[in-house]
Amino acid sequence: MSQQSLRNIELGITFFLCTFYLGINLPGPISIVLILLNYIAIPLLILTQWRSCVYVATRDIVLLVTVGITVVSVLWSTNPGETLASSRAIVFSTAFGIYLASRYTPKEQLKLCAYLFGAYTLISLIVALLLPSYGLPYRIHDGGGVALQGIAKHKNQLAAVMAMTTLLFLDISFYSRKYRGKSAFIAIVAFAALILSKGKGSLAVFIGMLCLLPLYKIVKVEYRLKTFLGICAFLISAAMTTITLVNLNFIIVDLLGKDLKFSG
Length: 264
Known about the structure:
Number of strands: 0
Oligomer: single chain
Strand content: under 5%
């Protein structure tokens, strides 16, 4: 088998694992099989880049200590079985993140995310149109009506992915002339999906994160102007944070229509 074929297989496995971690609503037996494949594939991927993975992992001792605490927490847990399962998931997801950081450059990671989130968005909309009982379920506990769920396990999960997708493609459309039109189109589609999912919490996070988009331009401007814009951005952020914290109960309960646990 040629080197390019092995590279394509590795990239396909990586894309599949990324999709798995985004979350897909599948029957129980299929989900179990995919979880088992996940536990097999990640160690194999790390073995192909084990030197780089070790180097990247040892650059962040705090991360390793945090993961280690989650593993040993099973010793004092009141529910060791559930804690062990959660710890295993954290270890494997962290290991996969280390592999991505060591295997792909930031530009390659951005390209992978663009394909991943773009495909997830389009497939979710297609599934909702072709299989409305699956992608547009009727939600009794949300006061009736339908909400876009797509291929996600829950509407809030889809909303979170769509918020990230919109921000990603807005960022690409702002700073990449080559893909500006396509990126803007996908950003609009993803934002529409975010609205249709009725995920108010993710919508609020998306609006807050919009403030970070101009930071790249601020960093590249002349020093004095950069300082002035940085101070303005800090003051505006501080004011918005203060207003949000003071009116947190009103924003969450009255405007978003949720309880303080964000369970809806």
